[in-house]
Amino acid sequence: MVFSPVLIRMTAEQGYKIWHISFSYLAFMWMAVLFLFLSIHLFFDIYALLITLSTKILSPSMNRYSLEKGVGLIVTFVLVAGIIFYGKIEASRIIVEKITLHTDKLPQGINSLRVVQVSDIHFSNINGLRFAKKIYEIVNSLNPDILVSTGDLIEKGLHQKEEVADELRKLQARYGKYAVPGNHEFYYGIQEASEFTESAGFRMLRNETVFAGDLIHITGIDDRGPNWAGEESAGIERKILDQDPYNFTMLLKHQPKVNDKSAELFDLQLSGHTHKGQVFPFSLVTFFFYSFHSGLYKVRENSYIYVSRGAGVWGPPIRFLSRPEITVFDLERR
Question: Is the peptide bond before 281 cis (omega within 30 degrees of 0)?
Answer without folding.
Answer: yes
